[in-house]
Specification:
The chain is an all-alpha fold. Helix content is 62%, strand content 2%. One of its GO terms (molecular function) is DNA binding.
């Protein structure tokens, strides 16, 4: 599942990404004080205001405790909650610790379970006209799409499936995924093969076949 747009980086990203990786990989241990703003600004080549913004984003994600008049301290990432998802999706590829990689595998599995929910709801509630319109849209994508064309196709398919399901909770969660994944690059893999994947998935939905077994067979990888 992807709803990505081309990546855009901002001044705070280097500091935010660097601190996030240091916390999750254990280089900054739970209970440890963050380095002074001045030192972090020098390390990442940004202003102290930018460092402060990054630290507050980590606070909002439940990874840092900000103390007025005192040093900010690292919280245990093992106790992090769903607020950390956005940072995991943006910066998780840089994580190297075993615990962090396990969490990323769990997040990947969760995305698959969420996609299954979307497919099941769409299979239950989509009208014949909606199924036909989506199939025509996917068939209209070039057989060998550019990465940008594939990206647009992926985004459109999942948006349409979410709408077909007529479930407001799933729709609200999709809005979150769109926001979280909004700065990610296009999906890795051969665009022609991924286009075939979506075409097969939508053809099964159009034929009122269960698309979930095909989806699972296509996306599951052996357990590590």
């Amino acid at each position: 599942m992807s709803t990505a747009n081309p990546p855009t980086r901002h001044a705070a990203d280097d500091a935010l990404e660097g601190l996030f990786v240091e916390i999750f990989d254990g280089h900054l241990a739970p209970g440890e004080a963050l380095p002074a703003e001045r030192l972090l600004a020098e390390r990442y080549g940004v202003s102290r205001i930018t460092v402060r913004q990054a630290v507050h984003k980590l606070k909002d994600a439940g990874l840092v405790e900000v103390r007025q008049g005192g040093a900010s301290r690292v919280l245990d990432p093992a106790r992090a909650d769903a607020r950390v998802f956005e940072l995991l999706l943006r910066y998780g590829a840089r994580l190297r610790s075993d615990a962090a990689r396990r969490l990323l595998r769990d997040l990947d599995e969760y995305q698959q379970l969420y996609a299954i929910g979307l497919l099941e709801a769409a299979a239950r509630h989509a009208t014949d006209d909606e199924r036909a319109e989506l199939l025509a849209e996917v068939e209209g994508c070039p057989a060998t799409p550019t990465p940008e064309q594939l990206q647009a196709l992926e985004r459109r398919v999942w948006q349409r499936l979410t709408a077909f399901g007529r479930n407001r909770v799933l729709q609200m969660e999709m809005a979150l995924w769109q926001r979280w994944l909004g700065e990610e690059p296009p999906s890795a893999g051969d665009p022609a093969e991924l286009r075939w994947f979506y075409l097969t998935l939508v053809r099964q939905l159009h034929a009122r076949q269960d698309p979930i077994p095909f989806y699972l067979a296509s996306v599951r990888t052996p357990a590590a």
